[in-house]
UniProtKB/TrEMBL annotation:
Its EC number is 3.2.1.86. It is an enzyme of class 3 (hydrolase). Keywords: Glycosidase, Hydrolase. Gene3D superfamilies: Glycosidases. Coiled coil: none annotated. Pfam families: Glyco_hydro_1 (PF00232). This is 6-phospho-beta-glucosidase. Transmembrane segments: none annotated. The active site is at residue 375. GO terms for molecular function: 6-phospho-beta-glucosidase activity. It comes from Leuconostoc falkenbergense.
Length: 476
């Protein structure tokens, strides 16, 4: 008997803005990803005031999947994928976000894509909002600072739920909705919520208000989706990794617990339908005076999700510091320290396969819901030699994580429904805007400067992952 359930969703994951390109094709509007420049390991991506000449915007062309989708889907089928996670670019459907009528050409593109996938037996898994809201909603409405966003988002959700009700079963509302809990990271507030931080404002209050509107919008979308098709499986999606205490000192243990609470409260609300006690207390103590209505609280209760999707890349170590202001944070430069027991990727992300099993256990105990690992992988530099890419480091990373998934299922009784490794076809990094931070089993010939033929090549990990899928995880 196989460890993995017989209908386990082996797949691959991407997001529209990081791989589609075609940023102005067929009426698409400008998204927040279209105004972000390229960076690298040392250089932060910049958010520009609209599209400026002479800047490099890597998402504009990305890997041009928009114009290659048929050949690419054929390659995904050859890889053996049973599931394919992507997002719907909101700006293809509502270019500005506040129109009355959707853009038919944008809707048609996803009809064609889903038909192509389904004809090859590949199940689409769709994120509604993955760091790509219409930029117009930022300039006109202030992004998710504004309650009106709930209407714009639920309208977008209704239109696509209705249109694809017979083609898509697995949905997620907001990608990594919890990234912004590290609110000192301005990039996360922009990518999650379209918020440009103003000097002298209380960023923490702004973050909690925007997050509240998003969990309400998510809960409304869950109800709308279930009304349209009761078979829809609609999930939350968080970035998750354990926060380990730096030492057995109870102060560090408490700090690690707090870091986990701050990082996961979105799942508490989306799964249990209510705010956790510590956070209700925190809102009162800080006197944020948030716009949270009684109706909102009913909506949260009525719109709980069917499963928890999450990304897993790394774990973190945190220590207590004698500074009250950092008590209620996830981690930051003051509290996070390196883990001497683990190796790191070239981008400094701690590689921790056992941490994935730990997380699967922790989430099962806390939520008792089906779990879906919708992102995992190693960002690395690849070398092409005679048309081949020998990425044994990537195979090792994925194998070790799959081994821990098998233990979590077999030994720990975790209900894991699928695994879609991130960026299984090379794409633009969200964090750095680079092409050369590669996660793929399929290589795409394009570099950080934007040069290359866009030709697709199979890496060694391609044949390896194909064998994993065809043996349902028995042959790693
Ligand atoms: P990149 C960290 C930083 C930025 C985005 O990240 C992240 C994370 C991980 O928690 O989120 C996801 O491209 C995200 C993807 C992204 C992927 O991680 O910076 O959902 O859009 O590409 C990998 O290496």
């Amino acid at each position: 008997m196989s460890t993995f359930p017989k209908d386990f969703l082996w797949g691959g994951a991407v997001a529209a803005h990081q791989f589609e390109g075609g940023w102005q094709a067929d009426g698409k509007g400008v998204s927040i990803a279209d105004v972000m420049t390229a960076g690298d390991n040392q250089t932060k991506r910049r958010i520009t005031d609209g599209i400026l000449p002479d800047e490099n915007y890597p998402n504009h062309e990305a890997i041009d999947f928009y114009h290659h989708y048929k050949e690419d889907v054929a390659l995904f089928a050859e890889l053996g994928l049973k599931a394919f996670r992507t997002s719907i670019a909101w700006t293809r459907i509502f270019p500005n976000g506040d129109e009355d009528e959707p853009n038919e050409a944008g809707l048609q593109f996803y009809d064609d894509l889903f038909d192509e996938l389904l004809s090859k037996g590949i199940e689409p898994v769709i994120t509604l909002s993955h760091f790509e809201m219409p930029y117009h909603l930022v300039t006109e409405y202030g992004g998710w600072r504004n309650r009106k966003m709930i209407d714009f988002f639920t309208k977008f959700a209704s239109v696509v739920f209705q249109r694809y009700r017979n083609k898509v079963k697995y949905w997620m509302t907001f990608n990594e909705i919890n990234n912004q809990s590290a609110m000192m990271n301005e990039w996360s507030l922009f990518t999650n919520s379209g918020i440009v931080v103003k000097p002298d404002e209380d960023v923490e209050r702004v973050m909690y208000q925007a997050s509240h509107y998003e969990v309400v919008a998510s809960a409304l979308a869950v109800q709308i989706g279930h009304d349209i098709n009761p078979n829809f499986q609609i999930g939350a999606m968080l970035a998750l990794g354990p926060a380990y205490p730096a030492s057995p000192d109870p102060k560090d243990i408490m700090k690690a617990e707090r870091a986990m609470q701050v990082n996961t409260w979105y799942a508490d609300v989306q799964i249990k339908g209510r705010y956790p006690a510590w956070l209700r207390q925190y809102f009162k103590q800080r006197q944020f005076d948030l716009d949270i209505t009684l109706t909102d609280l009913d909506v949260l209760q009525a719109g709980t999700v069917d499963y928890l999707g999450f990304s897993y890349y790394a774990s973190h170590v945190v220590q207590a510091v004698a500074d009250e202001r950092v008590d209620f944070t996830t981690r930051d430069e003051k509290t996070e320290i390196p883990n001497p027991t683990l190796a790191a990727s070239d981008w400094g992300w701690m590689i921790d396969p056992i941490g994935l099993r730990y997380m699967l256990n922790w989430l099962t105990d806390r939520y008792e819901l089906p779990l879906f690992i919708v992102e995992n992988g190693l960002g690395a530099f690849d070398k092409v030699e005679d048309g081949q890419i020998h990425d044994d480091y990537r195979i090792d990373y994925l194998r070790q994580h799959i081994e821990q998934m098998a233990l979590a299922i077999n030994v720990d009784g975790v209900n894991l429904i699928g695994y879609t490794p991130w960026g299984f076809i090379d794409l633009v990094s969200a964090g750095t805007g680079q092409m050369d931070k590669r996660y793929g089993m399929i290589y795409v010939d394009k570099n950080d400067a934007g040069e290359g033929s866009l030709k697709r090549l199979k890496k060694d990990s391609f044949a390896w992952f194909n064998q994993v899928i065809t043996t349902n995880g028995d042959n790693l």
